[in-house]
Amino acid sequence: MRGEDSLRILVPTEGESLPLMDINTCETEAPELWDYVFVVDRRTQRNPGQVQRQRQFLEELENQGFRYKAMEDQEKEFFGIRADNRMFDRYWRLTETEDTVPRGELSRPTSIRATNRIRIVDFVLNSKMAAGDTLQDLVKDGVFEAGFPLHKGEEHLKKKWARWRSMFQRQPISDIRDYFGEKVALYFAWLGWYTYMLVPAAVIGLIVFLSGFSQFEASQISKEICKAHDIYMCPRGDHNRRFQRLSDTCAYAKLTHLFDNEGTVLFAIFMALWATVFLELWKRERARVVLQWELYGWDEDQEEMALGLISCPDHQPQLHQHSYLRSTVILLLSLLMICLMIGMAHVLVVYRVLAAALFNSALPFLGEQVTTAVVVSGALVHYVIILIMTKINKYVALKLCDFEKPRTFSERESKFTIKFFTLQFFAHFSSLIYIAFILGRINGHPGKTVRLAGLWKLEECHLSGCMMDLFVQMAIIMGLKQTLSNCVEYLKPWLAHKCRSLRAPSQDPELGHWQRNYRLNPVYTFSLFNEFMEMMIQYGFTTIFVAAFPLAPLLALFSNLVEIRLDAIKMVRLQRRLVPRKAKDIGTWLQVLEIIGVLAVIANGMVIAFTSEFIPRVVYKYRYGPCRRGAQSEVDCFTGYVNHSLSVFYTKDFQDPAKIEGWENVTECRYRDYFSAQDSNFSEQQWFLLAIRLAFLILFEHVALCIKLIAAWFVPDVPQSVKNEVLKKKYQRLEEKSCSPKSTDV
Fold first, then answer.
1. How many domains does the chain have?
2. DSSP secondary structure string for all residues of 398-447
3. Any idea where the Anoctamin dimerisation domain is (predicted)?
4. Could you tell me the sign of the dihedral formed by the alpha carbons of 260, 263, 269, 270, in that order?
């Protein structure tokens, strides 16, 4: 066991600014602060090869200026690692920029941020040593059980931030940056801004939803459905072999009107504008924060090269390369995975068809609620598939990134982000796309239905329309994602930490501190990435298909209020300290947000045009209804719409009408579509309606995208105050250079 008793180091304050240069004027010795801790399972000491690699790694660290101290308990051996301060002096010289003030001898800092110190040490430890090993390699091979930086000075974050009672308080972004680094601070700054901007969207979405209540009883369409006792609907599946009165769907018709009304179109356009304004205002907020942190001109490539030179004086930067062969292989494999995701949607189709037949035979008490049970159970199955495919998608995305051989860690993270998000997008939204645009449109019509494997009839939409199915699917998946997933996200590390903390720590203060950090939950390279991905999927649910679920922003708002504190508690109280990362923006996630905004415009336009009843209602009002020649005060403009929107099918044309209960008393039944009763071909109304749907889709998308472009132009990405501050600093540097004696002409 080694001791370092001859070194004197000042103990930093809570902010953890550590001395850049050794200070030898102290008369009393203070407790030493360690940058990193390695943990060794003593059982591995029985393997001579493991012990040899461990000693060789520690010796190489000593040669690079590191010092270490070993301590042990009954099961583990701990090594505290501390880097030579000259390493950080070299980092300062290599990364010196002109962003803050002109550099001179007096501007040289006397301390280095703990976040920078940990980041530099972590980079060196995970760079290849002379023997070719990195810390990650040694942990993977079992030479070390773990390696992590220590929590120190987090008490103020526990009191101000990482607790549930602080849910409605402002986040201390500067303190988060001082402890976890810029990347984590930017994540919480973005999440806080996103939550703040959700307030108007949630309020307007709730108003749109509640506005349906004002017409809950007054809607002419609902009134006609509730009074349609003499209209019989055709059997919709093999599980329901009887005619059903249209009036039996009265309650569902009223519920559908809550989210399928005229306000839906305006809300969809508003959300397109909201998404653009949110992004533009975030860019402005980010610019202010980055300028305050003196990172406005920070260069990531320069940072990577500087760290490489600190780790190895002979370091050479990796050059940019591109392989068309690798790109082609990755593209083909990605398309194969996307096809698999789409195939999972077809699995759900098969499940819903088989579940309908099973529920009808095994659960006869469900009666007319078989369709509802199938929709709900299908959503639950989809949620389970999402959980399974998330693990598979992450593995595939990592393998694709390794095959692509990215140049730097940041480039690897960016490529991984694109691949993983693409796969996750199809995993989450494939079933919603099927319900919104395919369900009920490929199953034929009564008397000539499309069957799966020639046996089971394909599922149809609910009698009240496909918007009800889409609403239920989104409500269940988003509800489970925001409740069950958050509970698991918190309870799993909390219970694991409690179990690991049952054994009391050592009486030695230093060893006890190391043990408490070791017993926290481990963190990984992409721990923060997982939080970003969770929020991006939620953002997709909040904007894409919001026309079918106007309560999505409200659910997201409540979820984010919990998510901020949940993530804070995990990072500060339940997990080992994240290795700080330097950043001046949220990286590729900004492009992901912009792509989601464009997809939201397209998806919502298609939902309004093809899934909702908005277009058929408008066409009927102005072309076929009683108001086509002008409004009439004594007649509602939608009078007769229900009868107009239902096609007629003569029961004698069923292939085997005797199998349908009550067929002898019903001569004709109705179904939702615009077919001719004589030849079962599309009627003139269907072709006219299709043309109007396409025209509306084109008009809606162009108007919404133009609004987005105008909003993006109207709101500058960078505030003028930030531009002026940068301009002043540039002028100040030029002025000082021009006045410098060295710059005067001889």
1. 2
2. HHHHHHH--SSHHHHHHHHHHHHHHHHHHHHHHHHHHHHHTTTTSSEETT
3. 108-173
4. negative
Distance between CA atoms of 403 and 419, rounded to whole angstroms?
13
Q: Which structure tokens are listed for 511?
A: 């060893």
- For 427, the token pair is 């995993």
Rg (CA), the chain: 32
Residue 230 covered by a domain: yes
Statement to judge: residues 398 and 436 lie in one domain: yes
Of 386 and 3, which is predicted with more confidence? 386
Residue 15's pLDDT is what? 43
Residues 6+ apart with CB under 8 A from 90: 309, 310
Mean pLDDT within 235-242: 66
Residue 236 CB contacts under 8 Å (≥ 6 apart), including other chains: 371, 460, 463, 671
pLDDT band at 25 (very low <50, low <70, confident <90, very high): very low
Do the beta carbons of residue 664 and residue 651 sit within 8 Å? no
Same-domain status, 88 and 177: no
pLDDT number for residue 572: 93
What CA–CA distance (Å, rounded) separates 456 from 355?
Answer: 11
Beta bridge partners of 449: 444
What is the Cα–Cα distance from 603 to 538, expressed in whole angstroms? 16
Residues 6 or more apart whose CB falls under 8 angstroms from that of 314 comprise none
Backbone phi, psi, residue 206, to 5°: -65, -40
Split at pLDDT 50, 70, 90, the class of 365 is low
Question: 72 pairs with which residues across the strands?
Answer: 77
Phi, psi (deg, nearest 5) at residue 577: -65, 130
Q: Which of 124-128, 273-277, 292-296, 564-568 has the highest mean pLDDT?
A: 564-568
pLDDT band at 366 (very low <50, low <70, confident <90, very high): low
pLDDT score at 454: 61
pTM of the model: 0.84
Nearest 5°: CA angle at 127, between 124 and 129? 100
Q: Which structural domain, as residue segments, surrounds residue 300?
A: 173-313+320-402+411-508+521-616
Q: Is residue 745 in a domain?
A: no
DSSP 146: E
Contact status, residue 217 vs residue 182, Cβ threshold 8 Å: no
